[in-house]
Structures are given as structure tokens and as C-alpha cells.
């Protein structure tokens, strides 16, 4: 049985109170390991280690910090198979997905920000004949990074890498539901020679461990990805302490299919954007709006291709749909399916817990589920389900599509399918979404800002936005 340890001041150590939580394999429903049930005392020790390491780390030339991050990226690449298998077992996702997306993107995060460290430039503003003003950016200090369970190592490193790149030291907490790859990252950081205390990974649940990170006065900034309700609670705690906050929260994303689209591409990509990672991606398009002239054609082809989404053992190479992350989450999604029936929805596909024979007979599997005939403003179409459940809704005009798309409290992402370039730009600029994809989905460019509007978050991650978040600007004026 795997017993995970905290990564504290450069060493792997048990939690101070000696308490552990069970770690469950969602594909089998069986406990396969334990993780530390860390508390405020462990967080305090991590902050102390980070504060001690901070002067030397921030003074290290950016190129030297970058070389260490690139070395970690190379070690992630070298351990692809081991990390991917751990991610699949911990999360329930298909091993093929972990190999193709989660682990390579984690390596990319370290490589991108490692190389970006040496290109983060000072800005200068010359007042002719009067003065020169220049702006330097100093690391904000010790920061807290709290990441979710859906893309565990990918989103964990998405936060840690830019913080380390600019010279911050980090106290990080992965989700207690999916801690395995963060633990393996600890081992890789030791192997890479990352100085003690620069990165500390503390395992535990939200109320005991996460809350202690947010409350600790030594932590100057918080980067959090997770649910909107948790983000609201976190903000109430951190705002009076004047901590910097970056909150990437929930989404209820529209996928708008216009009649002039490339129908084959729209259907194939919409299958992926609906059900990738069992619908457990904050960017999944769970509300599909289809222009009425092609509604039946889209629905017919969508349901036909859905039959190819094989539910199975995540370790099997032909599995498309793995297990949901936990029994509690499975029950939550099933409750929303029940709600959709109560709200008058017509079930077109799925809707039931799935059984996978063999070792996965007790796993948390759910059929990909499709409803139609639901009002755009019903709870099923307004609340984040975060599972393999989508709705199909026809529309007649651009204005109607925009109204329905913008009707939720969320504004993370949106997708448009059309051959009309002018319409694409016009609609995109009117969508209340931090990210808009046109004729594609989930394309990632690490140089671009990432984040949502409305209840989908505060601030932006990615590229220079991430580097700026983990720094404080200082203006220096020199009289000529």
C-alpha cells in the first residue's frame, strides 16, 4: 500500500500529528494507499522552511532558476509512464489520456516557465530631459498554490512553475483525492537538486490543510483552482489580509453550432469537448446550442458517434471513458440526472451508472448522458455538473444564441462553430467568456492569459500574466 509523505524543507516527512487519510482507486472503489492528514502545524513548518529559503532563491540569477525548472521538466518526461499510470489510478481517467495530455503538459509547464524566467524584462519610461522611470518586479514572497483533482499534475505544475520562476518560494497543496503525482513530483524535485524549502508540498484536506495555507500571515498570495463556492469562501478569508488572489473557478460553458459550420468537425470535436476526462474539465462544453436547420442532423450524428465512447478499465488502450473521481462525485452527477428528468428533459443517451466487469466491477463509472427539451434557464442548464452530462438546445437567431449562452453566472469558456469569419468575431466579442474557441477546442498556448469572467474567477494565469501575479511592481524614478 502506497503511503504518501509530505515534501517539507527538501525531505519527505510524515505529518506531525501522524494522521492519514485513505486514498481510493476510483476504477475499483478500493483503498490502495494513504495520504497525510496534515494540519496547521505542518503548514506552519512549510512556511518557515519557505521563508528561510526565500533570500537565496530570489537572489539566484533567473537563468539558474530556469535551468533547475527545465531539469524537472526533463525528469517528468523521463518518468512519463510511471507518472501516467499513477495519474490514471488516482483519478480514474484513461491511461491513454494521462499519457497524451496530463503528464506532457506538466512537463511543458516547467519547461515554458523555466525558459521564460530569463525573458521577464524590466520596463523603462523616459521623460525627455527630465527623468527615467523604470519598473522592476520583485517576487511577492512565499505563496500558496492549491490545485484540483481533475487534472492533478497538469494544474499543480501550472501554478508552481511560474511562482518558482520569478523567485517565490511555494507551499502547495494538491487535492486530497488525487495526491499521487504530486508526491512523485516531490521525488523528482529532490533528484533535480531543487534547494530545500523552495517548494514544499503538504497533503491534506481543505478544512484542515487548505484553510491553514490561506490563513497563514506568512503567505502573501494564493493561487487556487476549484469550485466557485470554495473560491468564495477562500476570498472571504484572504481579502481582509490583503493577499493577492488568483481564482480559477467553475464553468457552464456554451458550445454554439451554427448552420454554416463544418458539421463533421463540429460533431467530432463536440464529442470530445463534452466527455473528455469524463466531463471533468472546467472547459467542457456542457450546453450545446444548435441552429435549428441542422439540429436534427447534428443530434443524429452526435448520438451515433457517442456509441464509440467505450466505457472501460482505464488501463485498457481502447477505453474512452474511465471512472468518475469518487463515489461522492458520482452520486452528485446522478442527482443532477434525476433533476434533469424532473425538469422535463428528454433523455437521448446514457443516464445510468455503468458496470465494468472484472477488477473494475465496483468502480465509479457513468454512461455519457445527453438530454434535450430542457429550458435554457433551468437548473440543469445553469449549474455546473462537472460530469459526462450535456444538453442539446435549438436556436433560431444569433441574438437568441447569445442570450442563452450568456444566461449563467459563469463565464469561463465558449466554443463557436461557423464558416462566417465576421459572425465568428462579432459573436466572440459579445460572449461573457474569458476564453473563446472558434472551430476548435482546448487548444493551449502557454503565452496567452487563462481565466474566466463573472463567477468563473478572478485574475488570469498563463504566460506573462502568471509571472506578473507572483511579483510586485516597484517604480524607480531617476532625475536626469
From TrEMBL:
One matching Pfam family: Aldedh
Keywords annotated in UniProt: NAD, Oxidoreductase
Domain Aldehyde dehydrogenase: 16-476
Catalytic residues identified in the record: 248
Family recorded in the similarity comment: Belongs to the aldehyde dehydrogenase family.
Identification of the protein by name: Aldehyde dehydrogenase
Organism in which the protein naturally occurs: Hymenobacter segetis
Lineage, uppermost ranks: Bacteria, Pseudomonadati, Bacteroidota, Cytophagia, Cytophagales
Amino acid at each position: 500500500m502506497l503511503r504518501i509523505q509530505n515534501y517539507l524543507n527538501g525531505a519527505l516527512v510524515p505529518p506531525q500529528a501522524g494522521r492519514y487519510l485513505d486514498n481510493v482507486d476510483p476504477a475499483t472503489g478500493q483503498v490502495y494507499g494513504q495520504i497525510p492528514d496534515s494540519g496547521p502545524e505542518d503548514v506552519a513548518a512549510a512556511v518557515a522552511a519557505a521563508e528561510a529559503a526565500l533570500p537565496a532563491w530570489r537572489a539566484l540569477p533567473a537563468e539558474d532558476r530556469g535551468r533547475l525548472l527545465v531539469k524537472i521538466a526533463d525528469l517528468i518526461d523521463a518518468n512519463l509512464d510511471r507518472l501516467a499510470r499513477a495519474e490514471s489510478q488516482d483519478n480514474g481517467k484513461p491511461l491513454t489520456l494521462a499519457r497524451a495530455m496530463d503528464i506532457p503538459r506538466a512537463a511543458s509547464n516547467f519547461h515554458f516557465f523555466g525558459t521564460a524566467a530569463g525573458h521577464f524584462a524590466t520596463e523603462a519610461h523616459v521623460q525627455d530631459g527630465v527623468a527615467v522611470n523604470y519598473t522592476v518586479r520583485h517576487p511577492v514572497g512565499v505563496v500558496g498554490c492549491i490545485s484540483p483533482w481533475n487534472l492533478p499534475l497538469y494544474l499543480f505544475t501550472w501554478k508552481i512553475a511560474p511562482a518558482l520562476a520569478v523567485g517565490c518560494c511555494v507551499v502547495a497543496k494538491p487535492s486530497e483525492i488525487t495526491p499521487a503525482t504530486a508526491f512523485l513530483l516531490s521525488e523528482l524535485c529532490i533528484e533535480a537538486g531543487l534547494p530545500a524549502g523552495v517548494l514544499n508540498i503538504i497533503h491534506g484536506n481543505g478544512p484542515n490543510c487548505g484553510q491553514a495555507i490561506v490563513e497563514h500571515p506568512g503567505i502573501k498570495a494564493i493561487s487556487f483552482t476549484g469550485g466557485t463556492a470554495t473560491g468564495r469562501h477562500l476570498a472571504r478569508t484572504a481579502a481582509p489580509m490583503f493577499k493577492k488572489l488568483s481564482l480559477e473557478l467553475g464553468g457552464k460553458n456554451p458550445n454554439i453550432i451554427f448552420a454554416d459550420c463544418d458539421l463533421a468537425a463540429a460533431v467530432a470535436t463536440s464529442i470530445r469537448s463534452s466527455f473528455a476526462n469524463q466531463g471533468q474539465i472546467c472547459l467542457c462544453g456542457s450546453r450545446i446550442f444548435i441552429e435549428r436547420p441542422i439540429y436534427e442532423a447534428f443530434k443524429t450524428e452526435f448520438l451515433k458517434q457517442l456509441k464509440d465512447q467505450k466505457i472501460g478499465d482505464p488501463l485498457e488502450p481502447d477505453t474512452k471513458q474511465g471512472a468518475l473521481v469518487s463515489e461522492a462525485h458520482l452520486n452528485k452527477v446522478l442527482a443532477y440526472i434525476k433533476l434533469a428528468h424532473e425538469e422535463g428533459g428528454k433523455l437521448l443517451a446514457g443516464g445510468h451508472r455503468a458496470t465494468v466487469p472484472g477488477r473494475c466491477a465496483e468502480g465509479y463509472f457513468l454512461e455519457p448522458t445527453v438530454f434535450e427539451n430542457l429550458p435554457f434557464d433551468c437548473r440543469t442548464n445553469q449549474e455546473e455538473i462537472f460530469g459526462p452530462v450535456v444538453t442539446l438546445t435549438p436556436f433560431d437567431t444569433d441574438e437568441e444564441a447569445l442570450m442563452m449562452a450568456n444566461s449563467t453566472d459563469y463565464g469561463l469558456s465558449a466554443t463557436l462553430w461557423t464558416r462566417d469569419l465576421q459572425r465568428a468575431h462579432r459573436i466572440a466579442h459579445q460572449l461573457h467568456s474569458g476564453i473563446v474557441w472558434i472551430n476548435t477546442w482546448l487548444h493551449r498556448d502557454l503565452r496567452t492569459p487563462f481565466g474566466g469572467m463573472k463567477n468563473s474567477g478572478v485574475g488570469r494565469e498563463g504566460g506573462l500574466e502568471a509571472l506578473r501575479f507572483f511579483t510586485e511592481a516597484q517604480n524607480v524614478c531617476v532625475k536626469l
